[in-house]
Write a structure and sequence with these properties.
By secondary structure, this protein is α/β, with parallel strands linked by helices. The protein has a single domain, classed as Peroxisomal Thiolase, Chain A, domain 1, CATH 3.40.47.10. Helix content is 33%, strand content 18%. The chain is built from 15 helices and 13 strands. The strands form 2 sheets. Strands 5-4-6-7-1-8-13-12-9-10-11 form an 11-stranded mixed beta sheet, sandwiched between helices. The chain has a two-stranded antiparallel sheet with strand order 2-3. A hairpin with a 3-residue loop joins strand 12 and strand 13. Helix 3 crosses helix 7 and helix 8 packs across helix 15. The protein is globular, with a radius of gyration of 20 Å. The mean pLDDT is 97.
Amino acid sequence: MRKVYITGVGFITSIGNDLATVTESLRELRHGMELFPPFQRPDVPVKVAAPIKDFQTDSPEAEDWIFPARYSIKRELLRGMAPHGVYAYCAMLQAIEDAKLGEADCSNNDTGLYAASGGSPFLLGYYLERMRKIGVMRCQPLGIVASIAGTVNFNLVAHFRIKGASTGFSSACASSAHGLGFAYDEIALGRQKRMFVVGAEDGNYESIVPFAGMRALSVQTDPSIASRPFDVARDGFVGTGGATVVVLESEAEVERRGAKVYCELAGWGQASDGHNVAISHPDGLGLRVAMENALRSSDVAPDQVDYVNAHATSTPIGDVSEVRALKAVFGANPTRPAISSTKALTGHGLSLAGAMEAAFCALAIRDGFMPGSAHISHLDPACQGLNIIRSTLPNRPNVVLSNSSGFGGANVALVLKSV
């Protein structure tokens, strides 16, 4: 098995739209939550979201969208994009620049792209209603391409002339973590030399509010306490969107290019709960097996793990499920590994979460810190015996585990190592 390294990242997130800002937000525990104007209606019980700043994509007409001046997107490309397609495009440009890749590095048979998103309910609903009102043949020709799941990989593969492996992943909140795992396999098995992995979501009214019907969203009106994983008073997650792109490369490519390396992606594991369509197994059985599989595949013992970026979304059931899985893998050890959930800062990015949080872990390894789990006033007694860190530690983790879980009990764990 060939070694796999992370050589570039790109971010459009609620806590920053570039590498430097995201890193500072993670270190200082600066969150991206706010009272979200589209939610301030009496018929909407949820008031807080973690929106993307400096982008305006609330119109169904792409020509009306506004994004930072540093990005130039041609009109014909915009017409086939959803809002999160714009975020993904901008994050992709950042990642290419960060990894110092040229056009020939991106467009060749040995470079592929895996992506994950839930599509755009916002645009899909708009286009279907438009079809009903004005007729089938008056529909926007690229409306389907722009709105269905797969829109991110459709657009990025076409625009960046990706010629290697490409597909989309759909396992809800585990989607982009699955993308990273299977991209690792492509490189480790010698089928590809380089992979882009993209997670993206709109993060608007239509992509967040439906979760209110599941009683999954926080109804807090104070942005500073709405997302508080592991706190005894947590009452649901806060929705967000954006995009993250992670560049994976083989050891041979890293050496050939003299590329900088954030860390090694050392292995991964997955497992399913086989329990419920929407709720995690109460004892976290699938996540426990996913973590065990990940550690085994990367030849890492539990006591070697320094930091765990937990999936913990701030829901009453999900956080405890993960806590029980963590205790099953690591035992009741109050000193290691350090554990936190960066969703206290970003909110929950759904399909985006796995890639975004793995990239956070890469930053933590490269820059030598472990972000704390913010907004905990009273730790849930179920967490006793685990080292849930509440402030950022100025220590470099050598081995990191990043967890993701999705609907249907899909669980993914990724292992990252310093080099």
